[in-house]
Design a protein that fits this description.
This protein is an alpha+beta fold and 74 residues long. It has three helices and four strands. A hairpin with a 2-residue loop joins strand 1 and strand 2.
């Protein structure tokens, strides 16, 4: 468990993430993190769930229309 400190950032509030946590999340200054509500609580992740959903849809379309895509690629 890691305790995170809240700090004032202008008129907002920020969270200080220790470098060890940043390394585990594989992010650095300027990257985006996503706060995802789960049944267990709030999950902080570098994984973009909306992008993943879009990729799942794209993969499904590619599987269904494989022959059409193959002809377009020729």
């Amino acid at each position: 468990m890691t305790t995170l400190k809240l700090i004032a950032v202008g008129n907002s509030t920020g969270v200080v993430l220790p470098k060890e946590l940043l390394a585990r999340l594989r992010v650095e200054k300027g990257d985006s993190l996503f706060a995802v509500e789960t049944p267990e609580g709030i999950e902080l992740t570098a994984y973009d769930p909306e992008f993943a959903r879009q990729m799942d849809v794209a993969e499904e379309i590619m599987r269904e229309d494989r022959d059409v895509l193959k002809k377009l690629g020729s």
